[in-house]
Amino acid sequence: MILLPGLANFREDYLLTRLERAQIASLALLTTDTTIAPDLEKELLANAGVFNVVLRRDAVRQLVLSSPIPSQVTETYDLRHSTEWTRIRDAVHALFDSDNKVIRVLGQPVKKGGIVIEVTLATEPMRIAMVEYGLRLLSISAVFSVITAVLLFLLVRQLMVVPIKRLVAHMSAYSEAPEDARRIITPEASVEELRVAEEALASMQTQLTASLRQKERLAQLGQAVAKISHDLRNILTTAQLFADRMESSDDPAVQRAAPKLMGSIGRAINLCETTLAFGKAKEPPPALSRFMLNELTQEVIENEEHPGEETTVDFVTDMPPNLVIRGDREQLYRVLNNLVRNARQAIEATGRPGTIEIGGGENREGWWIRVQDTGPGLPERAREHLFQPFTGGTRAGGTGLGLAIAAELIRGHGGRLDLVRTDETGTEFRIFLPSELCVEGVTEKGNGGEA
User: Fold this and answer.
1) What sections of the protein cross the membrane (predicted)?
2) Rg (CA), the chain
3) What is the pLDDT of residue 449?
């Protein structure tokens, strides 16, 4: 980008200089009516660096100065109509052509000294001058390039490398003790992009530190709750035994209060047992087997139906009768039972009749199971933390652990439990089980053994 245009301009200046010198030399002859001495003519042409000079004035072409030409003219260049591209092309051609040729050059005389001035000259001196100029230009360019590179390196190091090293150092220091709020990075970068990255990192570190502190407090609280629940469950079990004896009392007031007391104690024991179960180690990997989904669904429905009791809930199934799925039968029973029980309790709480539908199907990716009801829908508070333990309860007295455990069991299968919709017309949950499971420690029980 620098060398080629520079050489083209140098070549054009070289030729224009020869034209000007030739025009000045021709003035010695034009100012006198007599011829000049051969020695003087030879000296004028040598000073101009040309072999002859032709000047066209008033449409008359006149050979002003001349000397013997060592060879024929091979090329002609008209400087009056040259462009940037042609100048670069001719300069490259002259630079790499090592033969000493004779060329003709046409140009515009200076000071309106004629119409056209024409000279012939050798190419070797011009090529030597171009090589020397090119070497000087390369040397100067190299010096400026080195200086520019050093300045650019220092600038990039100051603006980019140093802040990035600082960012990495902060990340390393923070990873050693993420609970220490003093190690959270303070944005200081002057480059906008790096400053945005530092601000994002600081925000993430702040949230992570707060989460770690909260989890630590929750872990300590969980240990205390587990101990309290264990002791409380033993106390409530004893109270339940005495409450059972109260039911055999003949006192009408005791008989009326005993069922309520038993229900309250039963709910308290269930809360303790659920809390203790959730606080234990994570659920074991699913033991996979193939079984009929329709049979499992009927077991769930029979468990929720209470013969002899008036109920406003109807159960409907919508699935192929011979649909075979793969999964842990016991875990899937717990999931479906939890979803169906929640739906039944929601419908019964309204006092109006309703329907619970369990559907299932299969596609290329795996199996899906749908549980939908015509209940009142989930409240807004429950939707926000639906699958979070102790926060996603949908009814009074609930722990919020049912859906959290159900989602964990489905994730253990490599699938997912989604809330498809919930509004005043009802709620729909959908379970997806992939056909190919990549779960560490999962075993599949086949016919007569394990695969």
Assistant:
1) 133-156
2) 49
3) 35
